[in-house]
Amino acid sequence: MQIKDKVVVVTGGASGIGLGLCRRFAAEGAKGVVVSDYNGAGAARVAEEIGGLAVKTDVGDEAQVKELIDVTVRKFGPIDLFCSNAGIASPGGAEAPNQDWQRCWDVHVMAHVYAARAVLPSMIERGGGYLLQTASAGGLLTTLGQAPYAVTKHAAVAFAEWLSITHAHQGIKVSCLCPFGVISGMLPEDADGIGKLILKTAITPDQCADYVVTALEKEEFLILPHPEILDYFQARTNNHERWLHHMRKEQKQYVLASGTNP
Ligand SMILES: NC(=O)c1ccc[n+]([C@@H]2O[C@H](COP(=O)([O-])OP(=O)(O)OC[C@H]3O[C@@H](n4cnc5c(N)ncnc54)[C@H](O)[C@@H]3O)[C@@H](O)[C@H]2O)c1
Q1: Would you kindly state where each structural domain of the chain is located, as residue ranges?
Q2: Which of the listed residues 17, 106, 113, 133 should we mutate to test ligand 1's pocket, taking the one with most ligand atoms within 8 A of CB?
Q3: How much is the pLDDT for 132?
Q4: What is the CATH class of 7-228?
Q5: What integer pLDDT is reported at residue 254 of this predicted model?
Q6: Phi, psi angles (nearest 5°) of residue 188
Q7: Which atom of ligand 1 is nearest to 149's Cα?
């Protein structure tokens, strides 16, 4: 898909990866860019900068996602590309409170379900449309120290795969963005602990957006701005026992050592 003249929605558009996508989509000549975020003031700032429309949305609330889609269609017409990108970090393991697990499930999985449920019927009727779901390298591998995050990002990848398989014959394209480190609100430049390690190979949101636009042109399912993630993913599936052994060593070295182990 070429972005020029397309109607695009980006959730989590006020910051980080979403902000990079909004700027890049506007620069590509999108017909309309809708900057959606639960940080309404942040979304308004970005929308003003790029000449888009800000919509304050909590993506974990189905009624608000539906309203986001209705507002977009009223303003710009049918949606060509919906980017479910909002996300939250969530440290801890099994002991993390139920509300943290539920919030991750709502934001990383149900938000994608709500968006697909609301936007797919009209896309199918028009013979096509594109869904971009931001998961994470953690959704293909794991995220040390963050069980609610890792588990729900795996579910996000699974839902994206399912959509791609099920709706391809109706002209629906799906891509799943699985970055490793991207400097953002979630990974600030002064991050410590495991964040320090991730920062070593981190890219900027602009670099991530460049990568995404090229991958959308090729209509690739898996978008990996850090190509080494494909090697790790293959290592995981080729020899799962060996991969687990390696990850336990990483856990010892980077999480236990920093004292942030759940
Ligand atoms: N930064 C990284 O290293 C990295 C790596 C892999 C995946 N990701 C994923 O990228 C996506 C974007 O994160 P980021 O790194 O740009 O972080 P960020 O914190 O800079 O941006 C996330 C944005 O999502 C918004 N948001 C959070 N919960 C929301 C909700 N319920 N409804 C609406 N908006 C909400 C926040 O207000 C924020 O503006 C997330 O899904 C994240 O899991 C990030």
Answers
A1: 7-228
A2: 17
A3: 98
A4: alpha beta
A5: 74
A6: -70, 160
A7: 43
